[in-house]
Design brief:
CATH architecture: Beta Barrel
CATH topology: Thrombin, subunit H
Distance between the termini: 40 Å
Number of helices: 2
Number of strands: 7
Strand content: 35-45%
Order of helices and strands: HEEHEEEEE
CATH class: Mainly Beta
Strand order of the largest sheet: 1-2-3-7-5-4
Largest sheet: 6 strands, antiparallel, barrel
Radius of gyration: 16 Å
Length: 123
C-alpha cells in the first residue's frame, strides 16, 4: 500500500474544503426511446466543493489547452459521481460545460492522490 492509496483524498478534503466554494455538478440522465431518436434524460444534480484555477503558461503555450478554457478543481470526496465530458458545473453563478476539444489535455483528470478532479471547462 502506497502513500497515495485511499486515505490521502479524505485527509486532503477535510483539511482544505474550507478553501473551496459550494458548486453544483449537473449531468443529463440516461436517454430513452429508440437509438435513432432518443429522448434526453432528466438532468441529475450533485452538490460539491470546487474552485476555479488558472492553467499554467506551459499548458496554454504548449497547446495543451485552448485560450478560452477554464480550469476547475473539485474535491473528489464531495462529489458522489465521476465527472464526464459534456457535464456542467455551476460555480460562483457561472455554468461551465466540461469539454476537451481544442488542445490535447483531457476533459477530466485527477491528481495522483485522487483528492481532486481537474475539469477542463468552457462557458
Amino acid at each position: 500500500m502506497g502513500l497515495l492509496d485511499g486515505g490521502l483524498a479524505g485527509v486532503f478534503g477535510a483539511a482544505f474544503s474550507w478553501m473551496y466554494v459550494d458548486a453544483v455538478y449537473e449531468v443529463d440522465g440516461p436517454a430513452s426511446g429508440p437509438s435513432y431518436d432518443p429522448t434526453p434524460g432528466a438532468p441529475q444534480t450533485f452538490p460539491c466543493k470546487a474552485q476555479r484555477d488558472e492553467w499554467t503558461a506551459y499548458e496554454r503555450q504548449g497547446g495543451l489547452v485552448a485560450a478560452k478554457d477554464w480550469k476547475v478543481m473539485v474535491l473528489t470526496k464531495t462529489l458522489d459521481v465521476q465527472p464526464v465530458e459534456g457535464g456542467r458545473i455551476t460555480i460562483g453563478g457561472q455554468t461551465l460545460t466540461i469539454a476537451s476539444s481544442g488542445g490535447s489535455a483531457p476533459a477530466v483528470s485527477s491528481d495522483p492522490a485522487g483528492a481532486a478532479w481537474v475539469l477542463r471547462c468552457r462557458l
